[in-house]
Hints:
heterodimer, A: about 180 residues, mainly alpha, B: about 190 residues, Rna Polymerase Sigma Factor, Chain: A, Arc Repressor Mutant, subunit A, 2 domains, globular
Amino acid sequence: MSSQKSKHLIDDTILWTLIDPDKLQVNERTHLKECQICQAKQADLKKELSEMRQLACEFLPKPKRNLRPVLIEKTRPLVFLRVKNAFAYALMLMICVGGVFGLWPTQDNAIDQVAIEQETHSIEKMFQELDDNQQNDNYSILPFTFQYIVVDEFEIMANPFYDYIFPISTLETDDS
Amino acid sequence: MNQIAGWVREAQSGNRYALNQLIDHYQNDIFRFVYYRIHNQTDAEDLTQDIFIKVIKRIHTVKDHTLFKSWLYRIAKNQLTDFYRKKRFLFFMGTTDDVESEHCETTEDNSPETEVCKKEFLIHLKSLSKELSKWEREIFLMRFIDDLNIKEIARVSKKNENTVKTHLYRALQKFKKHNKFRELLKR
């Protein structure tokens, strides 16, 4: 028996033979090929590990249901229905955006509009009345029946004395 | 492998039969992957279905058809992470009992001996899992329970192959020290 053959592989080396046999040195590989003791050690370990796998497979419980997911085909709606939906969604979006940014007249706005119109109308009516009164000279001091009794022209105004006291004519000319 | 890549290609082009074939091919593997991490059958079934729903929704994103397996396990792993996160949140809110479920159902019609053996196996597996760090456990289970190779594990865990090997080596060292579990496996 050669000295090389008597020098058995250490346990760690035998472990490496299971993981990466290429990692062994040439003399270790040659020894393993020739030495039955080292081969037996390696085979025992291999057997234990394969037994472990076998038992793991054996003791694996049988699934109670089919593990393959059931595939259900999706039914796609007709094209025109999808286009219709797209339009409906776009319309809804427009309505929402319009509502948020006040693009559509709300009820409050409508009421305000009516109130403004009424107010404008009443102001216009008032101005119209004022114009009518102006034209009809309703602002004369005297009642209508007495107005013709008084002189047609306010001659009093022409009087320089009165005009000095009440400078109405000046005021009138200024106003005009 | 070529057949799976073919199914993936077909499934991507809308072939439902190919998609069903893919799911049927992997459903037990994914169920096992989930079950041995959460140890609860109902949750594992729910999660497996969720994983396949995600697969159906995202299968068009698979670029390399030969890497479908790694892609699938990656989805499963992410789904599990989400599950734990959710469960932790519910535990924090006080609406669930525990983050990690401890019970295992024995509703199947197995013989008492098998039931005892199963229970023992699960206890030892959990005990070993507790001794391993997060990544050691994850990689150990992927390698020796889910039967993924080093490259696939590296892709699923998004880690360097050497890092995966190192984690695996440490996990194996701890496994070797777990004599009770090894005795059970030798029986």
